[in-house]
Each structure stands twice: as structure tokens, then as C-alpha cells.
Design brief:
- The complex is a heterodimer of chains A (258) and B (303).
- Chain A has 11 helices and 10 strands.
- Chain A is an alpha/beta fold and 258 residues long.
- Chain B has a single domain, classed as MetI-like fold, CATH 1.10.3720.10.
- In chain B, 72% of the residues lie in helices and 1% in strands.
- In chain B, strands 1-2 form a two-stranded antiparallel ribbon.
- Chain B is globular and about 80 Å long.
- In chain B, 41% of the residues are buried.
- The chains are: A alpha/beta (258), B mainly alpha (303).
- Chains A and B meet through α3 and α4 of A and α7 and α8 of B.
- Adenosine-5'-triphosphate binds next to β2 and α2 of chain A.
């Protein structure tokens, strides 16, 4: 059973409805630990929806119906006894638009620690250490160390997005979900963030939604191709782009590459 | 054509405001020129504008009356309104929300004189019973009434500003595992704080300007309900406010023209000084509204 131990996220016949509209159809997948898995597919195919199932962010919308299972570390996160708070500590999320909270850079990174320590109490020193470490890990510390008290929302977009990644790290998540994290960034910033992801992937399971197939090819180890709410193909990236198993995958890839 | 009409409306609104101000100014100006003493006007609690031998025009007690009613009103309205706004914007379901909003709007639709009536007939005996005060018409009574009257405006502006907090902030906090409460007080309230401040200021403006209900519920007697010793503030004192003074006395104050040599008869000063109070009120509410406006603008520029 060697294979099973490095499965990080596992979905079983996962279906999701927004009201009457079905957005996911029986999605079954196994996403492995320690690598980057990209979710690709045309607009509206349900990539974001699937991603947001992994930390139950879809529950923010009323009238969302879900069937099937999502197991993280072998535990179905839709079971009644699962703590949403603990789940979101383990599964961090980065959004399409960088969204630092309207707090200082320092407070943005310390936010997670504070809300998860009992009574919001945590020693100053420990907190400062964790903040510095997190910022180091995303290679942001040197740029911001002299103005940690400035607002995170005032940084350039690339640094904002790095900050949004950094604020997840003090909570020691095992999974990072990223929804088109580079779509608001220019080419250079995109490269910087991609570099960062490559370095982070040893420690985390990274699932990234992207519209940009070149990007999926550059950074992902495995790829999931989705179409109209169905999982069409899940394969090693090298395979999927060179020898797609499914006709529809092939059409999609070729359509983009001419 | 329609654009022209809108333009005319806009311009005439400005003209109205200026002509009102001009009118108030013109009526009050003779007093300001002839017998206005800045110091005694603002620092003397002696308001005897109709005394035959010794007319005194000190509005300190009236300012204190307005201040005391406003303080009580805000002590009640601010927590209540902000709580309601947070609840409406973040915690309740759609149906409760609709219901609550209707109730709040209803609150705004109750005429001022009805509020005054409630103060007179309902609050008055209750306050007497609960506090043992000799009379229930006082700063506390009027404060409660005016507080309730300010609730709708504070709630509606506060709710708007809470809802204007970008969803991205909220998602960010929730995705980090923040509970609803943590999200509200660590992210939403700080992000909305300028709007909340503006809401409170407009509530203050509302409280300062309220007239009829205050006239009926304060007891309308001249008192400075503050003291240098504990308990500093005597909410159970009857007070009189700036607005109520104007409303109550203007009818009996004759408007007399200047006699020969441009000298006004002393009996005409009462009328004039009431307009000076009007100018003071104008200045206070203008200042409050401008501040609120600037705060709101500040928010917009930042986003
Ligand atoms: N909150 C919602 N309520 C109703 N329908 C929704 C909601 N969110 C998404 N949908 C619908 O579900 C389908 C899948 O949306 P989703 O956002 O997951 O697609 P996507 O693959 O991420 O698209 P994109 O590449 O444009 O981001 C779309 O048809 C969309 O219109
Ligand atoms: Mg999407």
C-alpha cells in the first residue's frame, strides 16, 4: 500500500450543485503529496469549484449542495465531526486576486497564529519569530523587514501575493490551494511566484488552478483536465501534454497550441 | 431637457441652503453687532432674554442640555445600532434581515411629535418608578428617545459600510480558519471603521438637531446637568436644549425693526438672539456633517 500513503487529497464521486445548477459531476481523483497538481480546463468547467471543495470554502454561498466524499489524510472532511477551523488550518488557500487583509504586513502574517492560539495569547517573541520565518520562506523578508508595520494592501501585487502565501505558513498547513495565483501578476512577478512554488512543493501538497497551460506545463508534476464539471483526465504533466489519453484533452491542448 | 431639470434642481438646492443661512444670519446679525459678548454668551448659564431689568443671554445651559441629551442618546444608539448593523450585515438570514430592515425603517417613519408623546406618557412614569426621581422628564428620558430616533440613520450607514468591505478580506480571514466573530472584529470592523465613525457622527447630528421630541421629553427647564464632583453627569436633571429653546420661544419673541438712528428696541433682542442660537446650531451640524463627509470621502480615496 505504498501508493496510498502519499495520497493527500482524495475525492470520491464528488458532485456539487449551486442551487439547481450542477457544477461538478462525480469527480473522483487522488492528489499526491509533495508535488504540484494543476487543474486546467476551459472557463466555467468547475476548477475553482473543485478547489474550493478542498477547504469547504463553497459553504460561504447559500444553497450549495454536495454529495460524495473529499478525504484529506484519509478523513472525509464533510463528516459532521470535522472542525472547519482545524481543516482550514491544515489546508491553506491563495486567491486569484491578492487579498492581504487591511492590516499591517506583520499582522497579516501573525493573523493565523493569533486566531488559532487559545484566547489569542501567544508570546511576542514566538510570534515575531514565526512571522519572520514565514516571510523568509516566501523570500519577502528582505524587502519588507524595515516596514513590517505598513499596510499589506499597499505592497506591489507580486509582494502582496507572496504575503498571502506567507500568512498561511505559520499554521503549518500540509496543503496549499491556489486559484490562479498569478493571473493578476505580470510576467516577471509570475516567474517569481512560480519559483517560489517550486521551492515550496517539497513540503506541501500544492493544488493550483491555472488558465495558462504554459504555466501548468512549467510548474506542475501532475495535471487534471476538467470539462463541464467532469474530470476528464488526470495524468503526469509530461504525459498529459505529450500523449493525452482522452480525445477531449487532446483537442483542448491542441486548440490552445495551434 | 431632463439634464437641464436635474441641473436646476441641483442648483436650487444650493441656493436654498444659502438663502436659509442668509436669512438666519440676517435676523441674528443685529444682535451679533450690538450686544454680543462672546464670553458670556458661551460661558454663562443665565438665560433671561425677557427679564425686564436685566436681560442676560447665556447659552451654556442650553449647550449643556443639548450635550447631555446627545451623550445619553449616543450611549444608547451607538452600541445598539452597530450591533444591529453587524447582525444584519453578517449574521442573520435573508428573511430576518428583510424583517429587521422594515422595522428599522418604521422607526424612522415615526413622527417626532409621536416620539415626544412616548417620552411624555410612557417613559416619564417608567423613569419615575425605576429611579425614584421626582420627575421623569429629563436628559435621560430625552436621551433614550433621541437615541432610538438616531438608530435608523446609524444602522443604515453602518450597514452600508460593513457591506462595502471587500469580500476578499473576508474570504482571506475565513480561509485561515477564522470564526465568524473573529472575522467580524479583526477584519470587518477595522476595515469599516471610518464608515462606522461617519455613521455615528451623522447620528450625533441627528440628535443635536432633534427638536419636538426633545422639547416634550426633557422637562424643558434650564439646568447644567454636569458637576465637577462625582457623579459628574446628572442624567436625571431636567434640561433644555438649543433647538427646543428656539421652538418654544420664537413664537413669543417679537420681531421689532430698528428705530431712529438704527437702534433696535431691547424687546426685539430676544428674537434676534434666538437666531444667533440658530447660527450656532447651523455651525455645529455643519461641522459634524462635513467631518462625516470627509471621512467617507477618505475611505473612497483609499480603496
Ligand atoms: N457562487 C456560485 N453560484 C452559482 N453558480 C456558480 C457559482 N460559482 C460558480 N458557478 C458556476 O459554476 C460553474 C463552474 O464555475 P467555476 O468558477 O468553478 O469555474 P472555473 O473553471 O473556475 O472557471 P474560470 O476559469 O472562469 O475561473 C460555472 O458555470 C459558474 O457559472
Ligand atoms: Mg475559477
Amino acid at each position: 500500500m505504498k501508493q496510498n500513503t502519499n495520497i493527500s487529497i482524495e475525492t470520491d464521486n464528488l458532485s456539487l450543485w449551486y442551487g439547481k445548477f450542477q457544477a461538478l459531476f462525480d469527480v473522483s481523483s487522488r492528489i499526491k503529496h509533495g508535488m504540484i497538481t494543476a487543474l486546467i480546463g476551459p472557463s466555467g468547467c468547475g476548477k475553482t469549484t473543485l478547489l474550493r471543495c478542498f477547504n469547504r470554502m463553497n459553504e460561504r454561498f447559500s444553497s450549495v449542495g454536495i454529495q460524495g466524499q473529499v478525504r484529506i489524510m484519509g478523513k472525509n472532511i464533510y463528516d459532521a465531526d470535522v472542525s472547519l477551523i482545524e481543516l482550514r488550518k491544515t489546508v491553506g488557500m491563495v486567491f486569484q486576486r491578492p487579498n492581504p487583509m487591511p492590516l499591517s504586513i506583520y499582522d497579516n502574517v501573525a493573523f493565523g497564529l493569533r486566531i488559532h492560539s487559545p484566547h489569542g495569547k501567544i508570546s511576542r517573541a514566538k510570534e515575531a519569530e514565526a512571522v519572520e520565518k514565514a516571510l523568509q520562506e516566501v523570500f519577502l523578508f528582505d524587502q519588507v523587514k524595515d516596514h513590517l508595520d505598513k499596510r499589506g494592501t499597499g505592497l506591489p501585487l507580486e509582494q502582496q501575493q507572496k504575503l498571502c502565501i506567507a500568512r498561511l505558513l505559520p499554521l503549518k498547513p500540509t496543503i496549499l490551494l491556489m486559484d490562479e495565483p498569478c493571473s493578476a501578476l505580470d510576467a516577471e512577478a509570475t516567474e517569481a511566484v512560480e519559483d517560489l512554488l517550486r521551492r515550496l512543493k517539497e513540503k506541501f501538497t500544492i493544488v493550483i488552478v491555472t488558465h495558462n497551460m504554459a504555466q501548468a506545463r512549467r510548474i506542475s508534476d501532475e495535471c487534471i483536465y476538467m470539462l463541464k464539471g467532469n474530470l476528464i483526465e488526470h495524468n503526469k504533466t509530461a504525459e498529459l501534454f505529450v500523449r493525452p489519453r482522452d480525445k477531449r484533452t487532446e483537442e483542448y491542448i491542441e486548440g490552445r497550441y495551434g | 431637457m431632463i439634464v437641464g431639470l436635474i441641473y436646476v434642481c441641483g442648483v436650487s438646492a444650493i441656493i436654498f441652503v444659502f438663502s436659509i443661512f442668509y436669512f438666519v444670519w440676517r435676523e441674528g446679525a443685529p444682535f451679533l453687532y450690538d450686544c454680543f459678548d462672546f464670553k458670556s454668551f458661551f460661558t454663562s448659564p443665565e438665560w433671561y432674554p425677557t427679564s425686564v431689568g436685566n436681560k442676560r443671554y447665556g447659552i451654556l445651559a442650553l449647550l449643556a442640555g443639548t450635550g447631555s441629551v446627545t451623550i445619553v442618546a449616543m450611549l444608547i444608539a451607538v452600541p445598539f445600532s452597530l450591533g444591529t448593523a453587524i447582525f444584519i450585515a453578517e449574521f442573520c438570514g435573508k428573511k430576518t434581515k428583510e424583517g429587521l430592515k422594515i422595522v428599522i425603517e418604521l422607526l424612522a417613519a415615526i413622527p417626532s411629535v409621536v416620539w415626544g408623546f412616548i417620552g411624555l406618557m410612557v417613559m416619564n412614569p417608567i423613569i419615575v418608578k425605576l429611579t425614584g426621581a421626582a420627575i421623569g422628564l429629563n436628559a435621560l428620558n430625552a436621551g433614550i428617545i433621541v437615541g432610538l430616533m438616531s438608530v435608523p440613520i446609524i444602522v443604515s450607514i453602518a450597514e452600508d459600510s460593513i457591506r462595502a468591505v471587500p469580500d476578499g478580506y473576508i474570504e482571506a480571514a475565513e480561509a485561515l480558519g477564522a470564526t465568524r466573530w473573529q472575522t467580524v472584529y479583526k477584519v470587518i470592523l477595522p476595515a469599516a471603521k471610518n464608515g462606522l465613525l461617519a455613521a455615528i457622527l451623522l447620528g450625533v447630528g441627528r440628535a443635536v438637531g432633534e427638536t419636538m421630541a426633545v422639547l416634550m421629553a426633557t422637562g424643558h427647564s434650564i439646568n447644567v446637568p454636569f458637576s465637577a464632583e462625582f457623579p459628574y453627569f446628572h442624567a436625571l436633571d431636567s434640561v433644555r436644549t438649543l433647538t427646543a429653546t428656539i421652538a418654544a420661544e420664537l413664537g413669543e419673541a417679537p420681531r421689532l425693526d430698528a428705530g431712529p438712528g438704527g437702534i433696535f428696541p431691547p424687546e426685539g433682542r430676544h428674537y434676534q438672539v434666538l437666531f444667533v442660537i440658530g447660527i450656532v446650531l447651523f455651525a455645529i451640524t455643519f461641522f459634524i456633517n462635513i467631518t462625516a463627509d470627509l471621512i467617507v470621502k477618505g475611505i473612497r480615496n483609499k480603496q
